[in-house]
Every structure is written in C-alpha cells, then in structure tokens.
Amino acid sequence: MKHVITLIPGDGIGPEVTESVVRIFKAAGLQIDWERHDAGVTAFDKTEETLPIALLDSIRRNKVALKGPVTTPIGQGFTSVNVGLRKALDLYANLRPVRNLPGVTSRYTDIDLIIVRENTEDLYAGLEHEVIPGVVESLKIITERASTNIARFAFDYAVTHQRKKITAIHKANIMKLSDGLFLDSCRAVARDHMDDIAYEERIVDAACMHLVMHPETMDVLLLPNLYGDIVSDLCAGLVGGLGVVPGANFGRDSAVFEAVHGSAPDIALANLANPTALLLSGLMMLDHIGERETATKVRAGLDAVLMTGAVRTRDLGGDATTTAFTDAICREVHA
Ligand code: NAI
C-alpha cells in the first residue's frame, strides 16, 4: 500500500536524520510519497512564515507527519515552531518511550519508561510579557480539560500496553492552584482505574532524584508540559543520550512523529548525527499507520547493526558517519 506522509526535514541535523530515515524506509520496500515542507528559519527565508499554512494543510490532509528538529532562537526572535505546531493541530499528547537498546551501553540496563507529557499549555506555551521595564511575567496556564485529556491518554495507554503503574509528577506543594488542578484531574481519572493501574504522585525534584537512583521502579510518567520537557532529557541520559530516544505527538485527528532531541547546532552539517532516535520515531509511525511487519523488519536491522557495534555514530562511542550508519541499516533491511 502506498502512503502519503508529510515530511518536515527541519534544520540543524534535521535534514541529515530525516534523509537517513527516508533511505532506510525505501530500502525496506515501503512505498511512501513524502510531502516535504519547510518550517522555522528555512521556511521563513522562502515564505516569511515560520509555520506555513501549506505545511499545516498537508498534515491535516495526510493525518501523519515525520518531523526533524526545528531551531528556536534563545531569548529573542520568533516563537517556537514546535509549540505553534502542537497548538495549531491540538497535538495534546506527547509520548516518549525510553528503553535500553541492544548493544548500547549506558549506566543502566533495565530501563523501560514511558513518558506522557501534556503538550499544549503550562509555562511552556511561552505566554510572556514585560510588566514594566525590569519586570517580566510568564503565564502558567493549566486547565482541567487539558489535564484530564492527558491523564486519560496515559491511563488508556497503560491499559492497552499492559503497564502497571502511573506516576503523576508535579510541584503542587508550591504551585498549589496550577499543579494542584493538574493533580486533581489525574486523581479523578485514576479513580476510574483503581482495579487495573496503580497510581502514585511525586514532586518533580524528588522524582528526578528517584529516576537517577531507582529508574527500574518507575513505569509510566505523567507530566505537565514543562516538567515533561526536562524529565525527557534526563530519561534519555539513562539509556545512552538524545541520539536514541523517539517520540510522537498525538491529536484527535493527526499525529506528528519526532525525536526528543533538538537541532544539535554543534554537530549540524557534519554527518555526525545519530539517526536512531528519528528512526525509532519513524517505527512508531509505521505502527500507527498499520505497517507493523515492516516496522519489525527495520527494527531488527537497527538492532543487528547496534549489536554488532562495528558501525556506530560518535555519540555511541563509534566513529561512523550518519551516512555509513544508515548504509549499514539499509544493507540489513535489504537482506
Ligand atoms: P539538542 O537536543 O539539539 O542537543 C543537545 C546535545 O545532544 C548536543 O550536544 C547535541 O550534539 C546532542 N545530540 C542531540 N541529538 C543528537 C543526535 N541525533 N545524535 C548525536 N548527538 C545528538 O538540544 P539543544 O542544543 O538544547 O537545542 C538546540 C536547538 O534545538 C534549540 O534551538 C532548541 O530550541 C531546538 N529543539 C528543537 C526540538 C524539536 O524540534 N522538537 C526539541 C528540542 C530542542
């Protein structure tokens, strides 16, 4: 079956890692018509828009997109394209499975975590203004609706994927109203699952320490947007770094698959990026569109290359280029 899928190469290492996934999927025999769209600075140079309407229309039409990272300027410049995209398509749920990969050494060997992050509100929405010179205000908006939606998503995921426990992560001791509302919403959903899923709560700072000391005791993590962003990178560090952790943004109508990592300007255009994180995001996408058999085949090819260890990128201790690593996986999936 032929699929039409929106492809956002992004910038920085984005074009390198997206091209890698496109090549591997082609080698695996998938028939995909990629509708390529720029976003961020690359789009602005051509259209004077950072999130072109044609891109949004393409995702609305195709329902599925694979996205490379997009740079957001620090402290100035345009607002985040990633935040804008998630808001525009109401991609309210961000799902990030964090697991050890075969052959990839890290400090831990038994990590199997699922991060479920609210994706549309909280401080991360970037609603800020200057009150008077020298004083700025950042608005932390938490709604019962969005909190309940993400809690339902997490519990539904736990039920369908045979997970045992959900930990809601918060700072409601200090932000009693906002994080308090998030917790109240999680508790209400948890009450409907008292018989099948265990539910606990942890304050975000203590949760970080616990994740580093006893990650094997955690299962599904349920977080508001900003804590979800930060804890995701912490969890990536448990399994070998940002080069190996995938993600997906789900809305009611469409889904955008992208790695946890950003545009990595320090290694951009150097053929050094590890495409594994985006490839794993792409495999989540294949599951989503019903191409499970091919996803399994590609996964086996990736695992074989990682296990052998002869060809690996610099972040995993090797010296292979993105291209060489991609070639090795293509050879495996061809076989
Ligand atoms: P980053 O994730 O781009 O990089 C952090 C570190 O991890 C760097 O040392 C980088 O070289 C390394 N790294 C990341 N991905 C890698 C990969 N695939 N292979 C090998 N090494 C990898 O985070 P940073 O530097 O904080 O952000 C850079 C830019 O990316 C910022 O403008 C940020 O806003 C943007 N960003 C975009 C995201 C998205 O589009 N979804 C997500 C996160 C950040």
Key words describing this protein structure:
single chain, 335 residues, alpha/beta, two-stranded antiparallel ribbon, 11 helices, binds 1,4-dihydronicotinamide adenine dinucleotide
Topology:
Layout: E1 2-8, H1 14-27, E2 31-36, H2 41-47, H3 53-62, E3 64-67, H4 81-88, E4 93-99, E5 112-118, E6 128-132, E7 135-138, H5 144-160, E8 165-170, H6 178-191, E9 198-203, H7 204-213, E10 220-223, H8 225-238, E11 248-250, E12 255-257, H9 276-288, H10 292-308, H11 322-334
Parallel strand pairs: 1-2, 1-3, 3-12, 5-10, 8-9, 8-10
Antiparallel strand pairs: 4-5, 4-11, 6-7, 11-12
Helix pairs in contact: 1-9, 1-11, 5-6, 7-8, 9-10, 10-11
The protein binds 1,4-dihydronicotinamide adenine dinucleotide.
**Succession of helices and strands:** EHEHHEHEEEEHEHEHEHEEHHH
Q: How big a fraction of the residues is strand?
A: 15-25%
Number of helical stretches of at least 4 residues: 11
**Sheet/helix structural class:** alpha/beta
Helix content: 40-55%
Give the strand tally. Answer: 12
Biggest sheet: strand arrangement: 2-1-3-12-11-4-5-10-8-9
Distance between the termini: 21 Å
Quick check: average pLDDT? 97
Sheet with the most strands, sense and barrel status = 10 strands, mixed
Shape by Cα distribution? globular
Characterise the protein shown here.
- A 10-stranded mixed beta sheet has the order 2-1-3-12-11-4-5-10-8-9, with helices on both faces. A two-stranded antiparallel sheet has the order 6-7.
- It has helices at 14-27, 41-47, 53-62, 81-88, 144-160, 178-191, 204-213, 225-238, 276-288, 292-308, 322-334, and strands at 2-8, 31-36, 64-67, 93-99, 112-118, 128-132, 135-138, 165-170, 198-203, 220-223, 248-250, 255-257.
- The two termini are 21 Å apart.
- It contains 11 helices and 12 strands.
- Helix 1 runs parallel beside helix 11 (322-334) and helix 5 runs parallel beside helix 6 (178-191).
- Strand 11 and strand 12 (255-257) form a beta hairpin.
- The chain is globular, with a radius of gyration of 20 Å.
- With 335 residues, the chain is α/β, with parallel strands linked by helices.
- The longest helix is centred in the middle third of the chain and has 17 residues, at 144-160.
- Bound molecules: 1,4-dihydronicotinamide adenine dinucleotide (NAI).
